[in-house]
User: Which sequence fits this backbone?
């Protein structure tokens, strides 16, 4: 029973990371109707920026804030420079851009920082586990940070005029332009926020998996499974789906398929959702009358 409870708590902690990346995927999907395959590599590159700042003597939370800001600028620049000219391009052209970004970030990170595994510091200390040994300090701290980020993003979209304008631009860009909303700027802001959220996820997961150019490949797969499970068109559903995938991964990996095969659980979730309920648990199926 204690083992099951520990796996559940660890799953919630991991699910918070997947929920963050899933939310970033949904934000880009709502703006472009494509999945950003480079989301994980962008988060990885941001984490390397944070490590470089920390090694240069910048305090952890100072490096955290700077990295989030730099990641926001990188995400907004990608939208303006690469994606904006591709607004009316064929679907495969946009997919090619995403795959190219994935390869570019991975290769540049390996070239600049090498492919050697590097430890990433945790800001939450190395003390003994808390609450009777069920949760480590980093698991608890990363879950709190992730929840703060998710709640902040939710409040931004729910209660601010800028957040409402971003939602409108992503949902219906033509009508948004007619009422004076600068759609291009809103989409760039969305890309920036997605990159910043991904950077937070990367910095929270790096102390667990160690830092290397390929560290986010599995995380991206779990996050994609979470986004599909909750609903690729529903930000709240994607967050819930991310937490669910984290719990399924930990419990299934510990008691069903083993740790070596638990990545296949994400693939199973993706296939089952696409076959049984493509819109996800919280998504809506849209039917167009022709």
Assistant:
């Amino acid at each position: 029973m204690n083992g099951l409870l520990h796996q559940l708590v660890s799953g919630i902690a991991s699910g918070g990371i997947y929920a963050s990346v899933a939310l970033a995927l949904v934000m880009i999907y709502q703006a472009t109707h494509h999945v950003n395959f480079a989301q994980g590599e962008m988060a990885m590159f941001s984490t390397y920026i944070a490590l470089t700042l920390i090694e240069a003597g910048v305090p952890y939370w100072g490096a955290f804030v700077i990295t989030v800001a730099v990641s926001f600028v990188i995400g907004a620049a990608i939208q303006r420079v690469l994606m904006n000219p591709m607004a009316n391009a064929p679907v495969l052209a946009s997919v090619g851009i995403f795959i190219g970004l994935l390869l570019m970030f991975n290769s540049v990170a390996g070239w600049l920082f090498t492919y050697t595994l590097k430890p990433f510091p945790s800001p939450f200390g190395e003390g003994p586990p808390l609450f009777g040994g069920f949760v480590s300090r980093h698991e608890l701290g990363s879950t709190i940070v992730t929840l703060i980020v998710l709640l902040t993003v939710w409040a931004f979209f729910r209660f601010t005029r800028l957040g409402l304008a971003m939602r409108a631009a992503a949902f219906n860009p033509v009508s948004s332009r007619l009422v004076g909303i600068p759609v291009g700027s809103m989409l760039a802001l969305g890309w920036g926020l997605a990159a910043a959220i991904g950077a937070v996820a990367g910095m929270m997961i790096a102390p667990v998996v160690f830092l290397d150019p390929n560290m986010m490949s599995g995380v991206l797969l779990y996050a994609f499974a979470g986004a599909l499970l909750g609903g690729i068109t529903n930000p709240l559903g994607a967050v819930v789906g991310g937490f669910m995938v984290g719990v399924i991964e930990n419990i299934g990996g510990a008691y069903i398929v083993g740790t070596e095969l638990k990545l296949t659980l994400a693939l199973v979730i993706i296939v089952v959702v696409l076959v049984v309920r493509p819109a996800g648990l919280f998504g809506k199926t849209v039917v167009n009358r022709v």
